[in-house]
Amino acid sequence: MGQGHAATIEYDVVVLGAGPVGENVADRARAAGLSTAIVESELIGGECSYWACMPSKALLRPVIARADARRVPGLRQSVQGPLDAAAVLAHRDYYTNHWKDDGQAGWLDSIGVRVHRGHGRLDGPKRVTVTSPERERHVLVARKAVAVCTGSRAVLPDLPGLAGARAWTSREATSADHVPERLAVVGGGVVGTEMAAAWQGLGSRVTLLARGDGLLPRMEPFAGELVAEGLREAGADVRTGTDVTSVVRRGDTVTLTLGDGSLVEADEVLMATGRAPRTDDLGLESVGFEDGSWLTTDDSCRVAGTDWLYAVGDVNHRALLTHQGKYQARIAGAAIAARAAGVPLLETDPWGAHAATADHRAVPQVVFTDPEVAAVGPTLAEAEAAGRRVRAVDHDMGAVAGAGLYAHGYRGQARMLVDLDTETVIGATFVGPGAGELLHAATVAVTAEVPVERLWHAVPAYPTISEIWLRLLETYRG
Question: Which of 21, 249, 302, 388 is deepest in the core (most CB within 10 A)?
Fold first, then answer.
């Protein structure tokens, strides 16, 4: 079929983007009996499966496991050697299915979702034009809804020399097939700190350059301080308050010039400097929006000013996290199905089946560094800026018996944020080895608005790190 002739196919729902978010929207729509198509220009499974969550954690897990083992008396001497980097990379490749998507494509087929491979663009209301890799064109017409689930992409800053420096983004950092001897990481956020931890642990000499005064600027200040301390102890050179003014590659060496005129040389440079919505060249202008923009939605993920267009996951800029995107996808899928069936949505019910309430008050996140950082809800600064009367309750996690058993010399910090008007927990941050597994209890407490007095009756098992909850409550009561 040539480019000049485009076949038209009708579906109830058309989903743009077959990452975890798009897959979940399609699954919910199909389960409700709606004919559903999904369009993907790359690999089915998306960024999370191949260049983000899964490969990054596969790289980090042995690094963190070795660090934990070195804190256990009797085990420490057995894990002093270097990691088998080749085995770690091979394990990472296993978790990405060697960048093949047969299994995920098969799953979509098994639930009755039609996959269209190629680049999809909106072409007016409820119309999507798909151009296949072979340059064939199809027009997909959605009777009920189109869902944009195309995610986000790395943003490279406008720096002299960067265009020719062959810089890594998060994609190259998670899929690299060798361990660079020297790695410069520009950016002190989640991607920068996690990849610095991973590659330092695998044998690189890492230099981390952060513009701000500390790392992880969107979290409690003590989180960034403890992560910086952990990276330095692992051998990384961590510099904050540092601007990069140029990046130039000459042969195998990349030279970064800093704001103070000093130079950093490396074999590879990772630019971890932010994300942008993957909505460029999406045809948004054909339906009244600007290509390349974030899309504003209501709590059912329907785009403002439309009755058929949904934006789910990163593209709506609510929370750039896979688990939150999947949560939104369940909400959006239910809303699309309800509206298609003519069932009225309870728009005023913040906890109904069609409202992404947790996107506002209980967004959990784990940073898989050493130490781990786990947080949910606002930080103290965010809560105070919003005008809330709050009290931050802090406690040394290393003072808990279970923490000392988990790791000799355990270092960590916990903060519980209490709204003084409602006497409920609205946020929590835990920093320390194994802290990520503490987070869901905090997420439940924040989401359910559990009164502090009731939390006294949720007894943590002894001796576990979860006993930190009892210490926080004791500190709050005074």
Answer: 21
